[in-house]
Write a structure and sequence with these properties.
Rossmann fold, 10 helices, Quinone Oxidoreductase, Chain A, domain 1, alpha/beta, seven-stranded mixed β-sheet, globular
């Protein structure tokens, strides 16, 4: 099968024919039907997030279960699934506490299956890793069965793919990490797939004011269609942005969601908080990045910072719930997609992502 392989950080991905082993115990083979391109993929491709190589990138995927390994119900063959990029071990302290998104022993962290091996190989027999144990920039993948979450009938494949990462990350940050109450005011900085998902989550939560902030006018227009009550065009003048945001939200929003992963916007989110306000950091920076803030007003004003990994996702529960909300017309996930591309176009898609102009691009392998 064909897949997009990263040999060395900073170099273009190569489309290769790889051998894919059959699923072993507790695993399933999934034919990939859609894979979103996330900024996390770009971080890895450009060397900002270290990864062992060679590795098939992609972690936001959906598809059809074609085969199952020993111990997996054969009735799962034919299921349409969304793939979770963080399968839990279910044994560690965090899993036992019900915080599977913080699992300390997930094979996803090693980009290997639960037994520590990989199912991907080059023609000469050399192993190839799968990003976060799913590697969705491919025509097919073998994953732990726990990472393949059945979707409700009628869920479009591209919608299911986005539920696997950006939707769960953004919507979950609002509904689960921050638990935004009805009537609260919200600001979202950065309107990629995750940021727009935060906007949709704030709308679901019943926020009274939802201010969407970005430097691209087209993204502001989309934000209005998925729940934003107000928009702000970002500039280099941080003070002016904060003042405009405060004017729209009676002195500052109760919650500010940072969905880009840049030091400047992390600091903007914190500086924008009113008394008692909460900054929720959803975007992930390059590994070495550090942000700063003035401590005295932060403590004196009883402000808070929350880190939100994967929107505190419990995939077997949350993925079908978000899909059902989409099918019910309450979560317009399809509006996040602006381009559908082939595997061979991934490098051009990365260029598009670097420009900051687009929304979510989806790879359709076949």
């Amino acid at each position: 099968m064909r897949a997009a392989v990263l040999d060395r950080p900073g170099e273009p991905l190569r489309i290769e024919d790889l051998a894919l082993d059959p699923p072993r115990a507790g695993e399933v083979r999934v034919r990939i039907t859609a894979s979103g391109i996330c900024h996390s993929d770009l971080h890895v491709r450009d060397g900002e997030w270290p990864r062992d190589t060679p590795i098939v990138l992609g972690h936001e995927g959906a598809g059809l279960i074609e085969a199952v390994g020993p111990g997996v119900d054969p009735a799962r063959i034919g299921e349409r699934v969304a793939l979770s990029w963080y399968f839990p071990c279910l044994r560690c302290r965090e899993c036992q506490a019900g915080r599977q998104w913080l699992c300390r022993d997930s094979g996803s962290l090693r980009h290997r299956q639960a037994d520590g091996s990989t199912r991907l190989h080059r023609a000469d027999g050399r192993d190839v890793l799968a990003n976060l144990a799913i590697g969705t920039f491919a025509e097919a993948t073998v994953t732990p069965s726990e990472a393949a979450i059945a979707m409700p009938a009628g869920t479009p494949d591209d919608v299911a793919a986005l539920i696997g990462c950006c939707v769960s990350t953004g919507v979950g940050a609002v509904l689960k990490t921050a638990a935004v109450p009805a009537g609260a005011s919200v600001a979202v900085i950065g309107l990629g797939g995750v940021g727009l998902s935060c906007v949709m989550g704030a709308s679901l939560a019943g926020a009274s004011r939802i201010v969407a902030i970005d430097r691209v006018v087209a993204k502001l227009d989309v934000a209005r269609t998925v729940g934003a009550t107000d928009v702000l065009l970002g500039t280099d003048d941080r003070s002016a942005t904060i003042q405009a945001l405060h004017d729209l939200t009676d002195g500052g929003p109760d919650f500010v969601f940072e969905a880009i992963g840049r030091v400047a916007t992390v600091e903007l989110a914190i500086e924008s908080l009113p008394l008692g306000g909460t900054a929720v950091l959803v975007g992930i920076t390059p590994f070495a990045a550090r942000a700063s803030f003035a401590v005295y007003p932060f403590v004196d004003g009883s402000r808070r910072i929350l880190g939100s990994n994967y929107g505190f996702a419990d995939p077997p529960v949350d993925f079908p719930r978000y899909a059902a909300l989409h099918l019910d017309g309450r979560l317009p996930i399809d509006r996040l997609i602006d381009r559908r591309i082939a595997l061979d176009d991934i490098e051009r898609a990365f260029d598009h992502l670097r420009s900051g102009e687009g929304l979510r691009q989806v790879v359709v392998p076949a």
